[in-house]
Amino acid sequence: MSTLETAFQEEMSAGHSAAWDQDWESAITHYKKALGVMPDQPRALVNLGLAYYEKEDFDESLVWYQKAIEVSPTDPFPREKAAEIFERVGKLQDFI
Q: Mean per-residue pLDDT for 9-20?
């Protein structure tokens, strides 16, 4: 594994641990650091979207889910979460 892959995995693991503890600020920090190492990595984008979702920062969550959709258009998960957010904030028509 390359140095970049190792750094990415370490940040993702730290983000997952923080998420497990429901420490969303720390999870966000680690997922952003992971994206700093490997930008546009779908797993990091989705996890960052989820961390913001759990903080109920739906606008920011949408930003990251939409980036995940762009990077990985065949993955249904970020599209489903984005639709859920649009529905939750009463703007489903903006998603469709």
A: 98
